[in-house]
Amino acid sequence: MNAITPRLCGNDALLAAARAVIAGGGSSNMRNLGIQDPLVVDRAMGARLWDVEGNELIDVNMGYGPHLFGYADAEVVGAVSERLRLGAMTGIIHRLDPQAGELISALMPSVEQVRFANSGTEAITSAIRLARFHTDRTLVVTFEGHYHGWSDTLLRGAITAGSTGQHGRTELHAAPGTNPEALWHTVQLPWNDTDALTRFFADRGAEVAAVICEPICANAGVVHPLPGFLAQLAQLAADNGALVVFDEVITGFRVSRGGAQELLGIRPDISIISKVLGGGFPVAAFGASREIMNPLARNEAFHGGVYSGNHAAVQAVVSMLGKIQRSPSVYTDLEESCSHLEKKLRDSFAEAGRHVRIARAGSVMSVAVLSGPQTGLEAYDAAMDAIDFAAHRRFQGHCQRGGLYFHPNPLEPWFLSSAHSREDMDRIVDVVALGLRALAE
Known about the structure:
Layout: H1 9-21, E1 41-45, E2 48-51, E3 56-59, H2 74-86, H3 97-107, E4 113-117, H4 120-135, E5 139-143, E6 186-189, H5 194-204, E7 208-213, H6 229-239, E8 243-248, H7 259-264, E9 270-273, E10 284-288, H8 290-297, H9 311-325, H10 330-352, E11 356-361, E12 364-369, H11 380-386, H12 389-401, E13 404-405, E14 414-415, H13 422-440
Parallel strand pairs: 3-13, 5-6, 5-7, 7-8, 8-9
Antiparallel strand pairs: 1-2, 2-3, 4-10, 9-10, 11-12, 12-14
Helix pairs in contact: 2-9, 3-9, 4-8, 5-6, 10-13, 12-13
């Protein structure tokens, strides 16, 4: 694979054309952040993508994580293509629906029943509604750095132009355009601070409907829970009649067969899954015990959506989870290759004299250029303060020009797949070394 040539007119022209008719150019704010070298994709296969100028890049962004087996997996794409031929959506229960639910329950035993949705945000919104119905309370506890979609209830400090300070951080506030009153029933606490959590429950525990968290905070630099933190969280919630909601949109079926809850040995009351669930097709799900899901079964709590559980999406779930069931070694193989990559990356940064934060959970890895030596990065504030956002964006640009793509935002993790070969891993290390040398110039 050759290094990428300087930008030609193709990417620039198409990005300009997109911006003329699509606000910002991309249909998500995250696609429009930190763009230095315009990149417009033509196709993606395995561990690679090709831009409209024919440049080939190894991709470790991987569509923000769904592609456990790589882009355009033949088995999943083939099954969904056939389902499209037979009818993608009728709005009626389909013969594949029970099979999809059974596969989820088999891999994630805390989920006895599920409902499908079209996105993580939809599933999270429905899960919170269900928790509030079940407890007859409204207060929801969240944690700093954890992202739970873009509903008014849970979106705080959205990233907008001009909203970031010198560290690229956002202040805690209602996102512009949202109803600030929606946050009156949401409280945000520091992640990994057991004392703060305990004090809060002592003061307001009787008001809490749910505590929602990413069991491993993958959306803000892969910040693991400290030993005992999630167990204490679960105990405080149970003692106060609140429900624990795990947002496993990223970690579900990604960090292990049963998600982070299996890896960490903590069973939540409600689980939310997406991304790997559909292998790149738009689908999400939320699930819990039959008791908790009963209000939906009885039509007492509301969840809808014309496209929720459409046949193409459910086919993707059946194909993806079926392949996971038949591929028991995929997680151990990924752990081995990602551990190798992590070590090589640490060596590269050390040789370059650059400070870095590398944190990993299985095949989810955070790589962020730091402003100096830092410790105690298990807290969101500390991790944010340590990152050199400007240097990281320059580093990303050098790597992209060298044939390696990852997101310019250092909080967005890398995702590795079974399609990334050992040769790909070695090439990643080589490009990173080149990027670090260019950063020093």
